[in-house]
Amino acid sequence: MNLFDLTGKNAVVVGGAGGIGQALAKGLCQAGARVMISSRNEESLKKAQAELKAECGADVLYYAADATDEGQVEKLCAEAVSKLGKISILINAQGFNKKFEALDFDMTAFRAMLDANITSLMMTAKYFGRHFKENGYGKIVNLSSVRGKIATKAAGNAAYCATKGAVDMLTKALAAEYGPFGVTVNAMGPNIVPTPAMTAIFEMRAKENNVTVEEYIKMQGAGIPMRRIGTADDLIGTAIYLSSAASDYMTGCTLYPDGGLTAIG
Ligand SMILES: NC(=O)c1ccc[n+]([C@@H]2O[C@H](COP(=O)([O-])OP(=O)(O)OC[C@H]3O[C@@H](n4cnc5c(N)ncnc54)[C@H](OP(=O)(O)O)[C@@H]3O)[C@@H](O)[C@H]2O)c1
Questions:
Q1: Same domain, yes or no: 244 and 138
Q2: Mutate to test the pocket of ligand 1, among 195, 202, 203, 204 (most ligand atoms within 8 A of CB)
Q3: Is residue 176 domain-shared with residue 221, that is, in the same domain?
Q4: Residue of the CA atom closest to atom 22 of ligand 1
């Protein structure tokens, strides 16, 4: 028996057209799962679908939905069940980070981050949780961050850190409620990973440090035990573990595929 085999399992990856979500969708497909990716922009979803076909030959489905809108999340869940059948894996890889110094925080952006980074995870957990309860089995994997555990010296991360700390506690609370239904709820907390979401942030930090983006990325890697920053593909193993039978007795945990940052942070 291969504990990590996902053959016959169906998965939904919210944020599946994003840098991390697409890599995790690829990993799930390579482990044998059938996957539906979802996010708001249909063009990005189509592009991700074509790239996944080219990269690993998988016929991934997509459905455009705003995960901060409860009605759309309910429809996403219904659509996934109608197209794929029983779903047993939900990956929440949506969210964003807008940085403002706390003394000057744009409160509209703060609320939008709460919505995308935490409320949307509750909404997907509500509707997919009902489906998982009916089936007596399910795996929920939430994208947290090292920033849910360690704040940054550099200013600007108040909202992001707060939402990711909330992801860790939501994960624990849902694990407690869903455990009796045979459903595990875990999170994974990467350190910085170069994805489209990070381009502007790398440019901003490089400027602040008076270095090029490449030099900034090297500097960041130098401070980590593994001496490099991670890639989206570095996160696949953790996601497969948390999506597979290998983790059936692990719930309420945040794992850190972070090159060792939180070991020294
Ligand atoms: N990259 C990093 O360094 C890093 C480190 C630690 C944790 N993380 C976390 O990992 C997750 C993915 O990050 P990423 O770097 O892959 O970002 P990304 O490349 O920007 O991808 C984010 C994805 O989420 C989708 N999304 C955003 N808001 C949404 C909403 N309201 N409803 C549905 N989909 C939505 C985006 O698509 P649309 O805009 O089309 O909806 C996109 O597909 C986030 O939770 C992030 O905080 C990232």
A1: yes
A2: 195
A3: no
A4: 18
Domain that holds residue 219: 194-229
Cα 173 to averaged position of ligand 1 atoms, centre (Å): 23
| Annotated active-site residue in 127, 160, 241, 256 | 160
Q: Is the C-beta atom of 257 inside 6 A of ligand 1?
A: no
User: Residue 192 and residue 205: Cα distance in Å, rounded?
Assistant: 12
- Pair 87, 158 in one domain: yes
Digitized pLDDT (tens) for each residue of the chain, 265 residues in all? 899 999 999 999 999 999 999 999 999 999 999 999 999 999 999 999 999 999 999 999 999 999 999 999 999 999 999 999 999 999 999 999 999 999 999 999 999 999 999 999 999 999 999 999 999 999 999 999 999 999 999 999 999 999 999 999 999 999 999 999 999 999 999 999 999 888 888 999 999 999 999 999 999 999 999 999 999 999 999 999 999 999 999 999 999 999 999 999 8
Mark whether 62 is an active-site residue.
no
Count of the separate structural domains present in the chain = 2
Q: Which two tokens stand for residue 34?
A: 């059938």
96, 40 Cβ separation under 8 angstroms: no
Return the HEC string of 17-44: CCHHHHHHHHHHHHCCCEEEEEECCHHH
Q: Using a 6 Å cutoff on CB, does residue 141 contact ligand 1?
A: no
Cα radius of gyration rounded to whole Å, the chain: 18
Residues 52 and 174 in one domain: yes
